[in-house]
Model the fold of this input.
Amino acid sequence: MSKGADTRQRILERAAPLLNRHGFQGAPVSEIMRVTGLQKGGLYNHFESKEELALAAFDLLMERINRKVMEVHRSHDSPLAQLIAHVELIASGGTRTEGGCPMANSIVESDDANPALRGRVSKVLEQWRCLLTHTIAKGIAAGEIRADVNSDQVATRIICALEGGHIFRHFHNDGRYLDQMGEFLTEYIERDLRVRS
Done:
């Protein structure tokens, strides 16, 4: 990696938690300068704008989370086990980063004032929904998940429950909300999705 690429990566590593905690739009440039140890000119040598830095930081955090999620999926052969492990990983806080869940934070932040972030969030949500839909479809094909299950509806319910749990957890500074969503979803999968023998 070149020196410029190393510096860019170091800026992202230091700025991403701050941007996640204070908002990808709302974090002051002065705070970004403080945590990175660079002046404004040093930052803008590597990023054309604060928005470009914020989007790159969001991408970095989501890449890390995606790696964890895919590791969980690869560690289980059964689609049903993958689905349960996926829920447990997120509900246990295994994908949280400093400042909370970047997806939940960005969903709240990415209104019409930031179309670029909104586009990134939309893309990640769609990738997540597709991963879950595909896992559920594999479970149906394997005879583990009921054939009459609507995989798109189930994926949407899982995402909404987990992200809602993250939002409540963050707002109340209380992990029980995310724990409750994890328990609810695990029961839902076992009770309503699993094929009964």
